Amino acid sequence: MWWRFGHFWWLWGGVMWLFWVAIVIGVVFFIKWLIQQNRPKEMKPSETPLEVLKMRYAWGEINKDEFDQKKKDLGY
After folding, report:
1. pTM for this one?
2. Domain count, the chain
3. pLDDT band at 3 (very low <50, low <70, confident <90, very high)
4. What number of CA atoms fall less than 13 Å from residue 31's CA on the CB side?
5. Under a CB-based contact definition with an 8 Å cutoff, are residues 20 and 13 in contact?
6. Are residues 24 and 45 in the same domain?
7. Which domain, by its residues, includes 11?
8. Cα angle at 70 between 59 and 60, to 5 degrees?
9. Angstrom distance (rounded) from CA 35 to CA 41
C-alpha cells in the first residue's frame, strides 16, 4: 500500500532512520549511566586525608591497627 503515501514515501524512511538513531543514543547513554553507577566513590577536594582514613576504617577496609599506624604516619 505504498502508493497511498504518494510522494511522501521517503518521509517514512527518514522517520525510521531517526527512530533507530534515537534507540542507539539511548542505549549508549544507558550504558554510560550504568558504568558511572559502578565506579568507586572519588575523594572530594574538601576531604582531608584523615577523613578518608576514618571512612576507610568505618567501611571496614582497614582494621584498628592499620588505622592507628596510618594516622600516625599522616602526623595526626
Report:
1. 0.42
2. 2
3. low
4. 6
5. no
6. no
7. 1-39
8. 15
9. 13
